[in-house]
Amino acid sequence: MELGFPYSTQISCQSTNGLKCLCKLLSSPRLLDSCCFFAGMKEIDVCIIGAGPVGLFAVFELGLLRLKAYVIDTLPVVGGQLAEIYPQKPIYDIPGYSYILAEDLIDRLMQQIAPFHPSFGLGQKVVGLQPMKGGRWRVQSQNGDLISAGAVVIAGGLGCFEPRKPDLPGLEALENRGVMYRVRDPEKLRGRRVVLAGGGDSALDWTLQLAEIAGELTLVHRNSVFRGAPKSAAQVRALADAGRMRLLTSTALVSLEANQEGNLASVTVQTKGQEPLCLEADDFVPLYGLTPQLGPIAEWGLALNASAIQVNTENFQTSVPGIFAIGDINTYPGKLKLILSGFHEAALMAYGAYRYIHGGAKPSFKYTTVTGINAL
Prior knowledge:
Layout: H1 16-26, H2 29-33, E1 41-49, H3 53-64, E2 69-73, H4 80-84, E3 90-91, E4 100-101, H5 102-113, E5 119-122, E6 126-131, E7 137-141, E8 146-154, E9 160-163, E10 193-197, H6 201-210, E11 216-220, H7 230-241, E12 246-248, E13 251-258, E14 264-271, E15 277-280, E16 283-286, E17 290-293, E18 304-305, E19 308-310, E20 323-325, E21 330-331, H8 339-357, H9 368-371
Parallel strand pairs: 1-2, 1-8, 2-5, 8-20, 10-11, 10-16, 11-12, 19-21
Antiparallel strand pairs: 3-4, 6-7, 7-8, 9-17, 13-14, 14-15, 18-19
């Protein structure tokens, strides 16, 4: 099936989740039409691998220089970890906001890049990257899409990542049948019996948020001390002391049990020195973090340092000309893994990508306060 590029309204069923996300975030038919999958080699100025906040802001900075971007991500939605793992977590270090929820930041970024009409390939994994004549790059996705890009920007955050899963028999059989590794919509847990497991910030944050939503809430932690923020840990303990949720520390997960329909029925745990305890549950959410992996990126001949991509700080180009890396996936002396730092890197990268694509020509620098966006 041939699909148009970049403004086709045809869309494969594989990208349905991404389409729904874009509709929800922006409610813009112009951006909606640009979310597509296509067959055959298609040309674009810059291919961005990673649709997290830094990748999205890179679309804006490239757009200011009249460079069209195609954004590809393994996740079925834009936003990266902000959308998938903690959409309702507040972020306090974004300029101009005392704080902003993660999902709202993605919403604002989508609105900001809308005038540049980026195209998206969501739910796709990049499996190939080969040089072409004239300094261009051939990017291939897992589903067979081929892209010819003037430059490539790796903004993959932690790279390919998978949730760390507890070693429990029958766990995978109950996935999407009561077992989940992230909370996408807290309202779907309203009035339900929820068991969370973990001791980091994610487990503590979701405990605090779900305390007023879940019918019964239990947090299970295998140690007595939490790894997350002390303030959050104290708030969780206060909730438990007030009888608003159950806190089980020094407690190990033992097994999961299913009902006759094959859905989760209970979680069995065992506190140190006590008998096993069966917790009736509708939902079990183990929050043990992510396992980052570079995936195919590790095979692209880029200089690496401890699973991060080495870049220069002039334009954040990698050891291979025409390939740039921004955000948490790169490394350099003094690197700070902050969204704010990634935004800075995106701005300098855009100028470097422009010069690479245009044979060293320097772009004309213009302030948006003078030109605006529509005049570009």
